[in-house]
Design a protein that fits this description.
The complex is a heterotrimer of chains A (about 575), B (about 200) and C (about 325).
Chain A: H1 40-69, H2 79-114, H3 122-141, H4 172-200, H5 213-244, H6 258-292, H7 299-313, H8 328-340, H9 342-356, H10 365-388, H11 390-396, H12 400-430, H13 436-462, H14 477-507, H15 558-575
Chain B: H1 23-54, H2 69-93, H3 97-124, H4 132-162, H5 174-199
Helix pairs in contact in B: 1-4, 1-5, 2-3, 2-5, 3-4, 4-5
Chain C: H1 12-37, H2 50-81, H3 99-130, E1 131-137, H4 141-144, H5 149-157, E2 165-170, E3 173-177, E4 183-184, E5 187-190, E6 195-201, E7 206-210, E8 215-219, E9 224-229, E10 235-241, E11 253-259, H6 261-273, E12 277-278, H7 282-292, E13 308-309
Parallel strand pairs in C: 2-6, 5-11
Antiparallel strand pairs in C: 1-9, 2-3, 3-4, 6-9, 7-8, 7-10, 10-11, 12-13
Helix pairs in contact in C: 1-2, 2-3
Classes of the chains: A mainly alpha (about 575), B mainly alpha (about 200), C alpha+beta (about 325).
The structure holds heme-A (2 copies), dinuclear copper ion and copper (II) ion (CU).
Chain lengths: ~575, ~200, ~325
């Protein structure tokens, strides 16, 4: 088992992998985060910090919404203000929190995981990041324009979204479209970069089937961006023309068709949910083996299932339009394709459970968030199947049941996965350990808070409470009080998290290169890794990932890399 | 399974191609980008086809349709420029820099002629952007494509300027390859667009 | 797969099998209980569509519970019995996969979801005769309309005599115009008979949603949608706008009154005798209040004037479901 196979012919000179991107005059302190730095690790952290800030903004908006919804009447804010709040909440959370933070993970993890020094296009990478604060500011600025921000929901369905009551050219809806379009451009730039990097810059010996699952899911997710985003862009351009230049693509009075927008929108925005969840499937697949001390169960199938999800995600969008006058045959067709997604997704879920089975579980904070995330995901997947069922969706569609479904995925699964990833890789990229005690407190509060917030929403939806309402009938009051209390608890839960992030970054214990005894190229690097990762000395990969308990080395000459990382670490402490 | 022996599926990716700098990523990345860009057009074409087949109000009152003869001529110019740019590239590969510049400039000129032709056609049309879905989609589609032609011409200008930098092509000519790829892309899109808008009128 | 820690008993295998059997039985029992309970999570069933939808939902709750309890039960088991002791740095069994198992857990979900889909198509077909029939005309009906079998069916049992009730959605009011000329902002329907509705919207998309009926259909500007349903239980229910329609969307609600046919006919008669007057309308009131407070708040189009009706909805009336 311990014998090392002959190395694949050294068909290339590893030195050329060293990226010739000198960063002249780039500051080496915290100020580098404010500069146009082209180092993927700096960009990754820039993404993380920016998006965590917007998580707070989006969360704050949701707190105000929940404050409004704690009583049946629209008493805290005007209904028009409520509309703007939930629109901005959804938009901020998706385009300024979730997409950017996942790109943060891509930037931090992809190059070290595949042994590349940097992204394929470092400058494009930096440009893609710097668009995030730009459209963030644009979106925030829409709070200040006369008439307030867009209040048309994150779908921005016409004709409502193009009504432009004040008639100004510069209005909230206009800025909203602009921001979403810029976000799309930034995402396309990112997608081109990540896919090119993974295709072309893998370490010697790292064939596709030796790649960590996170990289598989990254390719699968970014492929969706490339195929889907252009369609949304086309739809948004037409919307912009209708809003601002008097065309009537979506105005029935001028021969237009409001339904076409819905097709354009969902053609992208359904697959987009898998852009968000796939990397988190990747994070789960990375973390369970580490903390269960077992190889990932059924690695090959899990890898391939990612692409099955990509493919299926592109042919299910009409399940958001079952009650829009969609013909019966089309509903049935899209119901079947939607339900098929349960198969590749189920493969992943079962593989994670198979990985847990008979393992030696370590309940670190990261592991707790993974376990909680999968638990919630199974629930949310099942409510997803209910929504896919045409006759049931006709009843619960556009009610709080949908809101409950998607927050259970988007918060209680995806955001949990994001937290898990942060707790797991924080030591690697900051060189500091996080405090486990605060972490566990964060987990416990978050877990209780999310059940309390999102479970009652399902109940309210089944009884017929529509979503996007500022006021509601008294029979829904009980569920809403629970949900609001839960939401405030979630707000409280972020305090230990923020405290942990800040204090451990500033004065946490120094992290060893491999604190979790994990297997993976990134763990062979010092913490934090040097600017170009392995530089000239890229290891040759000789086995698949997740060899826990198999006693096989991951790379040729593994001990040397371990020793090198350790000595780099002690040199750093010695010098400090 | 003894994963320590490389199976065919596990053979290394070919990072060897890394040899001559970043050119190869650039092309890989650019092709990926073009594939994505083509989806925007695909979406707009689909939208156009749906409007054309289902809109109750299609041609604005008083509009009979589009004249085909002139646009056809400009189409010929644009499409044949694809051949010209190929000649330019071939010249570059053979190291004839002067010849390359001549063909390259000709391509730019042909692109410009196309743009001018489009401008003239726009100026003479009896309907505007606000005239129903028909007017809106006509100007949006041709305008969006025209923007691509303009981008192509500007990029060619940039490449032309760079060709005067000594030693510019020592490390390869990825930029030129990418721009010419883009130009072919713009041409193919136009052919589809022409069929959709001008040929498929009834 | 082996059990985590074979107990020192005489036949661990037998105990393992028994335990699994017990767990499956418990899971089944819990799932049946959930399915039965699920009927209480829904509003009162008041249309012919309700029973098939509720039963389908119960089926899904049962299957879903079985999967959810099953998966999380196994996770809980590992959490309780596969924990690494403190300071134990060992690895677990290095199992990399099990082809048979992987095939099984690919096929089982496939079979389950296809069964659900098949059942759902069946229910949809039933519904298209019981209510929730849709035909879209005008606008882009050709593209989005329900042509084919459902439409054919409708043509078959569509008595020419049945003139539809016009349902008009506005920002933010509902108006119902009956064949005999009654205008109302409250929808009255005869119990046990098929009602024909003709849905249209004048400004933006609205949603016709009556939770007690389990039915929902969008009103799309530029299209006329023929819709029909069969109310089966007398009572007063909520009709809610389900498709976000801007500013005062949340107050765009009214009531549906289902009553025995004789009573319904009497109401039609009586209503016609009332004078036309503007309907009570929450959105216009709220907007007036807003103007009185100095028009603060974010932009909204002003509400359309309330429709002139013979009978106005009573905001104070209590409803079930
Ligand atoms: C972000 C991530 C995310 C994910 C991963 C999903 C996953 C799924 N979603 Fe969800 N969904 C959203 C985010 C997401 N969704 C959002 C944001 C909306 C609302 C948008 C808006 O309106 O604003 C939405 C809305 C939405 C609708 C529209 C409802 C409506 O508006 O009327 C539907 C309908 O089909 C749906 C279905 C599904 C299905 C079938 C899955 C499947 O992928 C789930 C598959 C997973 C499982 C099934 C569990 C694991 C599998 C097993 C354990 C195997 C065994 C299981 C079975 C045999 C069932 N979703
Ligand atoms: C990533 C996506 C994401 C996330 C994480 C969340 C998180 C939350 N969401 Fe959100 N939500 C959406 C995406 C998301 N949501 C989308 C897309 C919609 C649909 C919009 C539409 O219909 O158009 C929606 C809609 C939506 C609604 C329905 C609105 C309606 O239909 O009327 C509600 C209602 O309760 C809600 C609540 C919450 C709550 C309580 C959280 C909680 O999990 C949040 C927890 C809070 C925090 C983690 C931060 C705590 C912050 C503080 C304590 C303040 C500190 C602040 C500063 C220092 C600045 N959301
Ligand atoms: Cu940069 Cu390879
Ligand atoms: Cu979807």
């Amino acid at each position: 088992m311990t014998s090392t196979a002959p190395a694949p012919a050294p068909s290339f000179d590893p030195r050329v992998l060293k990226a010739p991107h000198p960063v002249p005059g780039a500051p080496n302190n915290w100020r580098r985060f404010l500069s146009f730095n082209t180092d993927a690790k700096v960009i990754g952290l820039q993404y993380m910090i920016t998006s965590l800030f917007f998580l707070l903004v989006g969360g704050l908006l949701s707190m105000i919404m929940r404050g409004e919804l704690i009583t049946p009447a629209a008493d805290l804010v005007d209904p028009t203000v409520y509309n703007g709040l939930y629109t901005m909440h959804g938009t901020v959370m998706l385009f300024l929190f979730l997409f950017p933070i996942l790109n943060g993970f891509n930037n931090l993890l992809i190059p070290p995981m595949i042994g590349a020094p940097d992204m394929a296009f470092p400058r494009l990478n930096a440009a893609a990041f710097w668009m995030v604060p730009v459209f963030g500011v644009i979106l925030m600025a829409s709070f200040l324009v006369p008439g307030g921000p867009s209040g048309a929901g994150w779908w921005a369905y016409p004709p409502q979204s193009i009504q432009n009551p004040l008639g100004h050219f510069l209005n909230g809806q206009f800025l909203w479209i602009l921001a979403v379009a810029l976000s799309g451009i930034s995402s396309i730039m990112g997608a081109v970069n990540f896919i090119t990097t993974i295709i072309r810059m893998r370490a010697p010996g790292m064939g596709w089937f030796r790649m960590p699952i996170f990289c598989w899911t990254a390719v699968a997710a970014q492929a969706i961006q490339l195929i889907g985003l252009p369609v949304l862009t086309a739809g948004a351009v037409l919307l912009l023309f209708d809003l601002s230049f008097g065309t009537s693509f979506y105005r029935p009075e001028g021969g237009g068709d409001p339904m076409l927008y819905q097709h354009f929108f969902w053609f992208y925005s359904h697959p987009a949910v898998y852009v968000m969840v796939l990397p988190v499937f990747g994070i789960f697949s990375e973390l369970f083996p580490v903390y269960a001390r077992k190889p990932l169960f059924g690695y090959h199938v899990v890898a391939i299932a990612s692409f099955a999800i990509t493919f299926l995600s592109l042919i299910v969008w009409v399940h958001h339009m079952f009650y829009s006058g969609t013909p019966q045959w089309m509903r049935n067709l899209f119901m079947v394709t939607t339900m098929l997604i349960a198969v590749p997704t189920g493969i992943k879920v079962f593989a994670w459970i198979g990985t847990l089975w008979g393992g030696k579980l370590r309940l670190t904070t990261a592991m707790l968030f993974c376990l909680g995330g999968v638990f919630n995901f199974i629930f949310a997947g099942i409510t997803g199947i209910m929504l896919a069922t045409v006759p049931v969706d006709i009843h619960v569609g556009n009610t709080y049941f949908v809101v409950g479904h998607f927050h259970t995925v988007i918060f209680s699964t995806i955001t949990y996965g994001v937290f898990a990833g942060i707790y797991h890789w924080f030591p690697k990229f900051t060189g500091r350990m996080m405090y486990e005690g605060l972490g566990k407190l964060h987990f416990v509060l978050t877990f209780i808070g999310s059940q309390l917030t999102f479970l009652p929403m399902h109940a309210a939806g089944l009884l017929g409470m529509p979503r996007r309402v500022a006021s509601y009938d008294p029979e829904f009051a009980f569920a809403n009080v629970l949900a609001s209390l839960g939401a405030f608890l979630l707000g409280v839960a972020t305090i230990p998290f923020l405290l942990n992030l800040v204090s451990s970054w500033v004065r946490g214990e120094k992290a060893p290169p491999n604190p979790w005894h994990a297997i993976g190229l990134e763990w062979l690097l010092p913490s934090p890794p040097p600017a170009e990762n392995f530089e000239d000395d890229v290891p040759t990969v000789i086995s698949g990932p997740y060899g826990y308990g198999l006693g096989r080395p991951l790379v040729e000459d593994e001990q040397r890399y371990v020793a090198k990382a350790a000595s780099a670490a002690s040199a750093a402490t010695g010098g400090a | 399974m003894t994963a320590t022996t490389p199976t065919p599926a596990d053979l290394p990716a070919q990072p060897a191609a890394h040899g001559h700098g970043h050119g190869d990523h650039t092309l890989t990345g650019f092709v990926i980008f073009l594939l994505s860009e083509s989806v925007i057009f695909l979406a707009l074409f689909a939208g156009y086809a749906i409007y054309k087949t289902s809109s109750p109000l299609w041609l604005p009152p008083g509009v009979e349709g589009l004249e085909v003869a002139m646009p056809l001529r400009f189409t010929v110019v644009l499409v044949s420029s694809s051949g010209v740019i190929y000649l330019a590239e071939r010249a570059l590969h053979r190291g004839r820099l002067g010849e390359f510049r001549a063909w390259w400039l000709l391509t730019m000129a042909m692109g410009t002629v196309f743009l001018v032709g489009q401008g003239l056609e726009w100026a003479g049309l009896p309907f505007g952007l606000g005239d129903g879905v028909y007017g809106a989609s006509f100007y949006l589609l041709t305008g969006f494509h025209g923007l691509h032609v303009l981008t192509g011409v500007l990029l060619m200008g940039l490449m032309l300027a760079r060709s005067f930098r000594p030693g510019n092509y020592d490390a390869g000519s990825v930029g030129v390859t990418a721009v010419s790829l883009f130009w072919h892309f713009v041409d193919v899109i136009w052919v589809v667009l022409f069929v959709l808008i001008y040929v498929w009128q009834r | 797969m082996t059990t985590a820690s074979p107990s020192p008993g005489r036949s661990p295998r037998l105990w393992g099998v028994l335990l699994v059997l017990l767990a499956v039985l418990a899971d089944l029992a819990a799932s049946f209980w959930m399915a039965a309970a699920s009927h209480h999570w829904l509003p009162v069933p008041a249309s012919a569509a309700a029973a098939p939808v509720d039963n389908l939902f119960a089926l899904e709750v049962g299957i879903g519970s079985f999967i959810f309890f099953g998966c999380s039960g196994v996770m809980l088991w590992t959490l309780l019995f596969n924990r690494a002791p403190k300071y134990d740095l060992d690895n677990g069994d290095p199992i990399e996969g099990n082809l048979k198992l992987e095939i099984v857990w690919t096929l089982i979900p496939l079979v389950i979801v296809m069964l659900i889909a098949w059942k759902a198509i069946d229910v949809s077909t039933t519904l298209s005769t019981l209510g929730g029939k849709v035909r879209v005309t005008g606008g882009h009906g050709a593209m989005h309309g329900a042509e084919g079998p459902a439409a054919a069916l409708e043509a078959a049992d569509d008595p020419a005599a049945a003139e539809p009730i016009e349902v008009i959605g506005r920002q933010w009011s509902w108006e119902f115009i009956y064949p005999n000329g009654v205008h109302s902002s409250e929808l009255h329907l005869p119990e046990g008979q098929r009602s024909y509705l003709r849905l249209s919207a004048t400004d933006v998309i609205h949603g016709f949603f009556v939770p007690a009926f389990r039915l929902k259909q969008d009103l799309i500007p530029g299209s006329v949608i023929d819709y029909s349903l069969i109310p089966t239980r007398a009572g007063r229910y909520r009709l809610r706008d389900s498709m976000f329609s801007g500013g005062y969307f949340s107050s765009n609600q009214t009531d549906v009154v289902v009553e025995p046919p004789e009573q319904y006919a009497a109401w039609l008669e009586q209503a016609l005798a009332q004078p036309l007057r503007p309907a009570a309308n929450a959105a216009t009131d709220l907007y007036a209040q807003r103007l009185a407070r100095g028009d603060r708040g974010w932009a909204t189009v002003p509400p359309a004037p309330p429709p002139l009706v013979h009978v106005s909805a009573d905001p104070a009336a209590s409803h079930e479901g």
